[in-house]
Design a protein that fits this description.
The protein is α+β, with helices and mostly antiparallel strands. 53% of the residues lie in helices and 7% in strands. It contains nine helices and four strands, in the order E-H-E-H-E-E-H-H-H-H-H-H-H. Helix 5 (119-140) crosses helix 7 (190-200) and helix 6 packs across helix 9. The longest helix is centred in the middle third of the chain and has 23 residues, at 84-106. The structure holds glutathione (GSH). Glutathione binds at residues 10-12, 36-37, 48-51, 62-64, 98.
């Protein structure tokens, strides 16, 4: 049995839950003692962040490290394509989520409270998110190969869901919720909407994401 330190609202926690569900791996979830970033939790996970996974006594923090470990330790069903180029492009897609798109979304958390409303910051982040969605459209649109898009086919019947896909559903849900709360005028490129629908058709995504919109709205209402 795997142990996952997680909080219900964590984007990277949802990313890891989707991965574990698709792999058919059972987990026991624990809230970080004292909350994430607390001294008590840092005694267990030195960086203090969630998610963190314990497998057979081995503790791993960071969702990317967890994902790559799980893929090597539990290779069935595979969640990486075959071939050097496709594997490299899959890693690129995964890093794009964690280092490009999601940080622009997270930057809105501090202005979501009506008491801390900042229209200039919200407008700047909306522009940044729209720019990132435009870049993502190129990455997920296979026709965009010559412009740096995915190029080699990443998905197949044997690999319908990639490690790289698992972060996106939660971030897309946050964009929807923040767009409603802050009126951001988000533009969803057609290729990103098609990618999103394709992900939603995966059981691991639809089952894991059920109820997450309500968790986000509750978090926003509490700010
Ligand atoms: N790159 C990390 C990011 C994880 C992350 O930012 N987690 C947030 C919750 S969604 C967190 O733990 N924040 C508290 C902290 O970093 O101290 C990963 O992929 O796991």
């Amino acid at each position: 049995m795997l142990t996952l330190y997680n909080t219900p609202v964590s984007v990277y926690g949802i990313k890891t839950r989707i991965l574990l569900r698709h792999k058919g791996l059972k987990r026991e979830e624990q809230l970080p003692p004292g909350g994430y970033g607390s001294a008590a939790y840092k005694k267990v996970v030195p960086s203090g962040n969630v998610p963190a996974l314990i497998d057979d006594g081995l503790l791993i923090a960071d969702s990317e490290a967890i994902a790559e470990y799980i893929e090597e330790r539990y290779p069935d069903p595979p969640m990486m394509p075959t071939g050097l180029a496709a594997r490299a492009k899959a890693r690129e897609l995964s890093r794009f989520h964690d280092t490009r798109l999601e940080p622009e979304v997270r930057a809105l958390f501090r202005v979501v409270s009506p008491n801390r409303h900042d229209a200039v910051h919200a407008a700047r982040q909306a522009e940044a998110i729209n720019a990132r969605l435009g870049q993502l459209a190129i990455l997920v649109d296979r026709r965009g190969q010559e412009r740096g898009g995915s190029g080699p086919s990443l998905r197949s019947d044997a690999v319908p869901l990639l490690l790289a896909d698992c972060g996106y559903p939660a971030t897309f849900a946050w964009i929807d919720a923040l767009d409603s709360a802050l009126d951001l005028s988000i533009d969803w490129p057609g290729a990103v909407s098609a990618y999103r629908w394709m992900l939603d058709e995966q059981d691991a995504v639809s089952v894991t994401m059920a109820g997450y919109g309500a968790v986000i709205r509750e978090w926003i209402a509490k700010q």
